[in-house]
Design goal:
single chain; alpha+beta; Umud Fragment, subunit A; 8-stranded antiparallel β-sheet; 5-stranded antiparallel β-sheet; elongated
Length: 262
């Protein structure tokens, strides 16, 4: 006999499980959002990942000039190489001789630089926004050269064969390209075959950099008269060039070749 007011109808076995399954199924359907609602979330996540990658891991750059021929193409009439520049290597150490680095030109290197941003404030804002995610080049004078000497070393030119000297020892540089033979006695910048410059002791925390295309590179030699004597602060370095990612026919690694002393 059931307690007063407490009688219940008997249920078939399994009814509770079935009803719970139906409720769960309806709940799952209600939780699933349509794709158009999820798309902004996915875009935001992708943008955050891209921004973090550009800021802390690396980004692509375009080679705009011929200063690193033949290692990197960029001359007039050539297809400008796209390279990937990674930042990770220099979190735990400084650039070393032979590294190909991208850096921001010091003040004296920026005299002829013109902003690549639009004069239109709205367009400029959009460009700056996309630059943050690596989709538009940064608005700075980014240059690519090879490290020849580091802080504490002394660099000069030349020995009897026209080679660069570091700490008095001539360098063997298989990557270097000269259009004109060395003419002894000619100061750099005074004519064809002119290579000589006085010794420069690279300050600690700075680098001496040169283009592989020696007769067509406005590198450290061009800025000997500035306050840094042509050297570049390590803090200006954006990263190490490690891979050519375009065009397809030139895809491959960018090798760091330590300039060997004889």
């Amino acid at each position: 006999m059931a307690d007063e007011g407490g009688s219940v109808a008997e249920s078939e076995p399994g009814d509770d499980e079935t009803s719970r399954g139906r409720r769960k199924s309806r709940g799952e359907k209600r939780k699933q959002r349509p794709f158009w609602q999820e798309l902004p979330i996915l875009i935001t996540i992708a943008a955050v990942i891209a921004a973090l990658t550009v800021s802390f891991v690396g980004r692509p750059y375009v080679i705009p000039s011929e200063s690193m021929e033949p290692t990197l193409h960029g001359c007039a009439g050539c297809t400008g190489d796209r390279i990937y520049v990674q930042k990770l290597s220099y979190y735990w150490g400084d650039p070393e001789p032979g590294d190909v680095v991208v850096f921001v030109g010091p003040p004296s290197w920026n005299r002829d630089y013109r902003s690549i941003r639009s004069d239109n404030a709205v367009v400029r804002s959009v460009q700056n926004f996309f630059s943050f995610f690596g989709l538009v080049p940064p608005d700075e004078n980014d240059l690519v050269k090879r490290v020849i000497a580091v802080g504490g070393q002394t660099v000069q030119c030349c020995d009897a064969q026209g080679r660069i000297l570091v700490d008095g020892k001539p360098l063997d540089e298989p990557y270097a390209k000269y259009d004109f033979p060395y003419v002894p006695g000619l100061r750099f910048g005074t004519g064809k075959g002119a290579r000589e410059f006085n010794p420069v002791q690279v300050p600690d925390g700075n680098l001496w950099v040169m283009g592989d295309n020696r007769d067509h590179s406005a590198d450290s030699r061009y800025h000997l008269a500035d306050e840094l004597h042509g050297t570049v602060p390590v803090d200006n370095v954006r990263g190490k060039a490690v891979f050519k990612i375009w065009p397809p026919g030139r895809i491959g690694p960018v090798r760091a070749e330590h300039p060997r002393t004889k």
